[in-house]
Specification:
mainly alpha, binds zinc ion, MOB_kinase_act_sf, Mob1-like protein
Length: 166
Amino acid sequence: MNLNIKYYVNQAEMVDAVTLPPNEDVNEWIALHVHVFTEIIKQMFLQVQQQCTCTHMTIQNIVYANEPAYDYISKQIEEIQKYLTDENIFPQQAGVPFSKSFLPVARTIFFKQLRVFGHFFLHDNQLQNQYLLPQHFKHFVLFTREYELLQMTDFDCLQSVIQTIM
Ligand SMILES: [Zn+2]
């Protein structure tokens, strides 16, 4: 799969980028974005490795896990990887139909990605300059909204951030 990670300079370009291209299967489109955002998160994680010394997995003042954020995120990425290599959920060949489990699993993955983005955004600010985090996060928010992949309430603890980037 050719993962083209693009940077969108303006809102219009980004809104365009989330629109389903003509003749594209919507599940195929969502699967592609699961891969793209996973790749972005993995690259950010590599960059933040030495710097994320947060003793708990937090977003704002909400504690999601009583373990270092680094360990938590590392496990989330492993779990996402496991899903991505499961051919019953992510068919490796074009034209193979997606199973009924695809959308629920995709939603689970987007939810994990949201937490990772949220933590990086709020607690590991060096990423903001190094890795265009606001642009990627904005793309993520637009995409998951467009295809209703997350609940509005999932974004609750990130409202202030979203207001600054949207
Ligand atoms: Zn951190």
